[in-house]
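Subject: Alpha-1,3-mannosyl-glycoprotein 2-beta-N-acetylglucosaminyltransferase

B.,
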Amino acid sequence: MKMEYICGLWIIMRYHKILIIAGFLIIWTFVFYYFMLRNSIDFPLPENDYRRKMMFKKIENQVKQELKKSEKLTNAVLRYLKLNYPSEVSSNKRRESQTPQQKDQAPQLQLVGVVPLTDKEQQTVMGLVEPPEQEQNHLELPHVDATISHLKDGQPIIPILVLACNRVSIAKCLDNLIQYRPNAEQFPIIVSQDCGDEATRNVILSYEPQLTLVEQPDQSDIFVPPKEKKFKGYYKISRHYSWALNYTFSQGYEYVVIVEDDLNVAPDFYEYFLGTHHLLKQDPSLWCISAWNDNGKAKFIDASHPELLHRTDFFPGLGWMLTKSLWQELSVKWPKSFWDDWIRHPEQRKNRVCIRPEISRTRTFGKIGVSNGLFFDKYLRYIKLSEEFVPFTQLNLSYLLKDNYDNTFLKKVYTLPIVTYDELRRRLISKDGPVRIQYINREQYKRITKMLGLMDDFKSGVPRTAYHGIVSFFYETRRVYLAPNLNWKGYDLSWS
Ligand SMILES: *[C@@H]1O[C@H](CO)[C@@H](O)[C@H](O)[C@H]1NC(C)=O
Ligand SMILES: *[C@@H]1O[C@H](CO)[C@@H](O)[C@H](O)[C@H]1NC(C)=O
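Prediction pasted inline below.
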């Protein structure tokens, strides 16, 4: 920053010199013609008033012309200065630092060292070096749009942060990520490795330069309370997430997509995040985009609508995007363990919701080591991975914004006919179309989901995939909403 300020000051000083010269020229013109005038009056002149007036007019015109000339000259000098100041500033820089590799640096673009400038800092710098006139078209400045977080065309750069430890099967994940990546510049893959496992590191390194490997530097033993010894893995995972996210966001990115090393991704994985990222900025009630559907088994999804997306109060994780501002908020209080349960707590969630797809864009090929429990692991493998490519960037996704969604979704659900699970199962519903199954307490919810084969657990009182308590899924040929009664009062922490 210091250097940029010096450059800015220096330019201002240059402008001062030019203004003084221009001012001098103008004053000189006036003084010169003033003396001309006096002399001409002193000389014997024709007595004719008319002729005298004509002479005055002529001199007046000459003065005006001279003024115009000096104005033109001033402008020319200013333009010259503007066209040339970038190189002059870098030569100034060169003089200060004497490092040859800085020769070609344009001052307003360069990130000094590894600490990128924040947007605000960049604006400040740009404000200092911006020429005062609006003739920017004449200026062949280097392209100022491309930054660490955005491409030249304004599209965001979205790093894919892969969290690795000691599974060599990460190759399956990386193959997929590289295979479907439309543009390596826009989606840099950063693999962060914890655990220091040599074999895994070698697998990751074999993918260079398609990705970058970074290593979590703190391999010190982690303090775990005696009672939680068996959960040590979760403490390490939490430390790793915190380090890796901090590292990635500190590069200057606006968005990061987190992928664990046991995930396969769908062909339109990148397109999905590219098409939805703007929603996170547009709608403050959104805090994540997830590629995962917790109830994404083949029999619960509507295969004819791969483009369908939903809002959910349940944080799904498993291939998800967050913004820098959310990370700034969470990083300062990041927990020592069980970050996923922690993030789902109302204190963190603050009623914010995620977008999730009808058909999962990620699928886990199995966890070994730290596990979510046998049932969950087994279940996960039945999740259907989307195969079709949906052009999300071409779709109108404003139906997902809170006001639009709440207006239509809640109204729709609560005008649907109520049926029982038994009627559904025995195909006793005469009419086609969506229906609603009602639940009024925890036990009822558990019973119905178990019978259906849906996920039946809660986190911080929120059922998986629920929005306003409503779990939406596909059953045979129709959509079914498992919904609390209309005067629902919100999630109950004691249901967990
Ligand atoms: C976050 O990363 C930056 C840059 O890499 C580092 O200076 C800072 O100490 C890190 N903060 C935490 C809490 O790890
Ligand atoms: C997008 O969809 C919304 C409704 O969700 C509609 O109001 C809006 O007009 C649509 N925009 C375009 C460009 O079609």
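DSSP finds 14 helices and 16 strands in the chain.

T.
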